[in-house]
Amino acid sequence: MNVDTGNAMQTYRNRAGAAPGLPFPSAQSSDGLRSRRSWGIPPRRVAPVVRRLAAPPARVSTKNGASGEFLEESGPRNASFLEFLTSERVKVVAMLGLALALCNADRVVMSVAIVPLSRAHGWTQSFSGIVQSSFLWGYLMSPIVGGALVDYYGGKLVMAWGVALWSLATFLTPWAAETSLWTLLAMRVLLGVAEGVALPSMNNMVSRWFPRSERSRAVGIAMAGFQLGSAAGLLISPIIMSRTGVFGPFIIFGLFGFLWVLVWASATSSTPERHPQISKSELDYIGQREKQPVSKIKKPEKIMIPPFKKLLSKLPTWALIFANSMHSWGYFVILSWMPIYFNTVYRVDLRQAAWFSALPWVMMAVLGYFAGAWSDMLIQNGFSVTFTRKIMQSIGFLGPGISLLGLNVAKSPCVASSWLTAAVGLSSFSHAGFLVNLQEVAPRFAGVLHGMSNTAGTLAAIVGTVGAGFFVERMGSFQGFLFLTSLLYFISTLFWDLFATGERIDDMMMDGAGEESSPN
Fold it and tell me: In the chain, how many domains are there?
């Protein structure tokens, strides 16, 4: 090395934060860079002119030629919006969004149909709550088993079977309702059992198809479908019912589910490297963002018996469980009771009540994508994953808590709808909080962890949905129950901010995690 080059390299080291005479602190090994990132501080910038004098070490990369910003990865760049939009992975997440739209549409049809069914059969408010919660009885049974199946067989296969079964249950609901009450309840339970695998399957596919820097956005797209399914179900169901009878939406949504399964089975693959149409550049991009090519990533040994005891011994696990429980409590109470709320409190008819109840889910879809994109941007700009998840989840809890207090004092349906829209819309920030965090803290057991938190969330949803009916019947109003829900939102925010993390907790669980492994 000549004198000029040596001086240039020393200048390069000094500006990047290395002491004279010491090795350059690479992005993958520098304690200083890790310390800055752990506090949510972006990496230092290095003047572009230095790169013209001496090339940086091979392990250091730049974001682009103009900025000179050093990144943690060794070479990968962020995909442009056009590249992202036209990629095969976006087609996969679009199909996931359609599946989740059908999932919620099939679920909310009963929220609209319960009004004419209650009048026809003389059901009380409390018994209507029991009928609506019957879906949750089945939903309670499947998440843990479904999560284990997802970890073992992959999201594509489990999602296909889930959609097929819940579409069958939806399609057969009219026959069940005409047969007996117990048959109707059994069909709703089957719907819940099948839909319990939807979110673990979605998380599994997102973690396989998307690099970490794009996962919040991908979850935002998929969950936008989830919320638009609620809006579509609430808006379209009254129109279909007015022309075909109360059971028309069940048949139509069931048939759409069967069609989705055919497209999903033929047009997608469980992992990027198995997709026949994916380009080499996209395959390499997904792998590079994870530090190595997708085809060379070592797949972990599959564990059939997850370490439940070890998972439950970690406070971040409980933070996820409590977050899912609170999110499910608020979500299902609003989803199940808002049409009845507007119908009884403001005396609007069923179709108007559906419109007032559907608007918040459209807002949730829009804000859910915004939250995901913002979350990815924070991480790409150097803020820690832990900091990002805590910010997103805090907004996802504090926003609805404050908004429900406003809903409590609303004097007109328009004002009430505005507060409800704010509550539901802001709750979508949870998708960039605990929902993405499920993939991060224990990737090897993400399906099981999702199942555990979903089971707790379903229990909370059952208590909230049934409890709201009994509370309104006993107290004569929704105000007290809405105040209780707000208080629970505030408590859950505090618990999450104290104990949640974006770091992995499953590395120390490998020994003795399970005895039986996959034969494949």
Answer: 2
